[in-house]
Amino acid sequence: MPDHTRPAVAEISGTAAGDTPLLSVVVPVRNEAPNIAPLVAEIGAALAAIPHEIVYVDDGSTDATAATLDELARSTPALRVLGHVASCGQSAAIVTGVRAARGDWIATLDGDGQNDPADIPALWDFALAESAAGGPPLMVAGWRVNRRDTQVKRLSSRLANRIRARLLGDATPDTGCGLKLFPRALFLSLPAFDHMHRFLPALVLRQGGRVVSRPVNHRPRMRGQSNYGTLDRLAVGIVDLFGVIWLQRRWKRPRLRP
């Protein structure tokens, strides 16, 4: 059986900033060449006041994504680029990016430009304040209150979120939002498997962490077309859901004596 959590990876190009970043923005992409330069520019502008790096993971693209990233990395010191030799899926790309990241905090974004990087500083400030107050490790999940997608996507996501919340008890209204912020160490403590990114809130809760949803902006897709489609999600969703239920039932969080 192939190991989807350890895809073949090649460093394409790019140099990171000299100073260690506080925040790493991980962006998984497949065939998103037209969206790369605009999104990288937006991330840089939004995080100008925060020491950061941008980690793109090209998930086996067959368009000009690799060449576009290669060229852009030459002029963008904060941009680092990794590439899967063949497509392994969005979750594998996120895992690759987080493992390679140097920041203690991770923000994830979808590569299609629909998530707004301008939301990251507010999520970052909220996460730091909550963490300073103590308590379990925190994931801040974006909540696309005014989602700008097709009716089919909106209805299928609404149904999937209700089913997940009912069966997994993750109390998260929008688990599919690509914009999330969390400690790198927390993510690395989670079990890695194909499609895990759709269940991150439930996995964080299983690990003893907590999840807070915050409203974020959502924008229509301006260029290209979806590469991780609705039918793909529906085809594997039920199997994945019962797999996560199994994980929840097969683990008891130990509590240390005072």
From TrEMBL:
GO terms for cellular component: plasma membrane. Keywords: Cell membrane, Glycosyltransferase, Lipopolysaccharide biosynthesis, Membrane, Transferase, Transmembrane, Transmembrane helix. Pfam families: Glycos_transf_2 (PF00535). The lineage of its organism: Bacteria, Pseudomonadati, Pseudomonadota, Alphaproteobacteria, Acetobacterales. GO terms for biological process: lipopolysaccharide biosynthetic process. It comes from the Bacteria. Coiled coil: none annotated. This is Glycosyltransferase. GO terms for molecular function: undecaprenyl-phosphate 4-deoxy-4-formamido-L-arabinose transferase activity. Residues 24-187 form the Glycosyltransferase 2-like domain.
